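Hi everyone,

Forwarding the result from last night's run.
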Amino acid sequence: MALNNLNYPLDFKFKITTLASDFNITDRHGNYVAYVRQKMFKFKEDVIVFNDESKSKELFRIKANQWIDFNASYSLNEIATGKNFGRLARKGMRSLWKASYDILDANDQPKFKVQEDNALVKVFDNFVGEIPIIGIFTGYFLNPSYTVTGIDGKEYFKLKKMPSFFGRRFQLDRLIDIDDNDESSVILSLLMMTLLERARG
């Protein structure tokens, strides 16, 4: 199964009833696309993409290629075929203020960049989030967005944090057509990035 030819926008909705970081993905019609679960208590991040919440079929695996740090990258693999869709690489210290990632293909060649649109949103979100009572409402008015740009300079995807308590919802929209293989690579990268950015605050 490849993650392409989907009915956008896609909704990412995190569960708040479990200790693990996991979320459901549905399309514009409310149909299930996948269920994403990050394994707990791992020194290296390890994420499994299932067909749905029943976890009856593992579709993809995303694994950190080194111990958790600011420069980790994450390999993107299809479980059934062993196909590698490349990797997501975080841009080190720059990600402390403004999220910035590279998406590389299976040959380790840069294909796309993911960048936070407005760094100030993240700064204010982190600051206000520390204020008692008021902080719980930041999910309603401080919502970062991220743009996926190809090496051709075109904007392909937009990921937005949606107004919600506890930062529970994100929405992904495709802006222009994209190659099927690249689409799978970008979506898997954004699943991992969403987990990383949500954990960052």
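The CA atoms of residues 154 and 194 lie 22 Å apart.

Cheers,
N.
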